[in-house]
């Protein structure tokens, strides 16, 4: 796909049972202005989103992404998305993707200030080139997220488990990682518990056991991590959600950042100390992640 594709969506109620949604979609010119200046997503980052990997026209884990969109909307008190409508929007967008890797974004915003409904849209575009990260790995630094591990429960208005449009903090963390000579960051709670990367989940390997931070501490439950755990379990490995202290990072046998677009990037250094790269598992994870997944 050379060009971008954009679809404005008139959201219908979550319990609307119609089976044809095409009259709720309007294709717009993706390079032309499409949003009102009163739009709260642009003014306040007040909305939720999903980024879905597309491989050869197949949208990966579409159901898991629609499910997480609904979960994020619930945490933000946004009207629940109609799952069938968003599934259909993904199909329409995926049909615009050329062979190779692409990305579909789903956006559900609170809408225009004082307006009657949320604003919703979907886009499709070519994916970035992640070959080097998948092959050579990434150097990460740990960064304090500034909240303790009880913050999300004590203060749900921080929206720590929602995929909101307010990613300025995540992007600032990436810039800080670059300033420290690394490629990416791993957030750590102020009480020393490992969380996630600004745009990816973390998976560690110890022997034949793969672990990831439990998504109870105000982190996103990654669709890629879920998919990888299914694959690893089918291959006979043990998988587990754990509370991982920051000291547990350096002693892992191997580790990966996983996300919908980058897929599995092995971590080759943490805070300047080298970590072994498991080339065999990395290659098999990325082969699996590039195969059609539902
Ligand atoms: N954690 C954060 C903060 C993210 O932004 C993302 C993806 O963008 C992930 C984890 C990984 O989620 P997924 O595997 O669904 O892409």
TrEMBL record:
Pfam families: Aminotran_4 (PF01063)
UniProt entry tagged with the keyword Lyase: yes
One Gene Ontology term, aspect cellular component: cytosol
The keyword Methyltransferase is annotated on this UniProt entry: no
Family matches, as InterPro entries: Aminotrans_IV, Aminotransferase-like, BCAT-like_C, BCAT-like_N, Class-IV_PLP-Dep_Aminotrnsfr
Entry EC no(s): 4.1.3.38
Keywords: Lyase
One of the GO BP terms on file: carboxylic acid biosynthetic process
Domain of life of the source: Bacteria
Record GO terms (molecular function): 4-amino-4-deoxychorismate lyase activity
PANTHER family: AMINO-ACID AMINOTRANSFERASE, AMINODEOXYCHORISMATE LYASE
Family label: Belongs to the class-IV pyridoxal-phosphate-dependent aminotransferase family.
Name by which UniProt lists this protein: 4-amino-4-deoxychorismate lyase
Species name: Microbacterium pseudoresistens
Lineage: Bacteria, Bacillati, Actinomycetota, Actinomycetes, Micrococcales
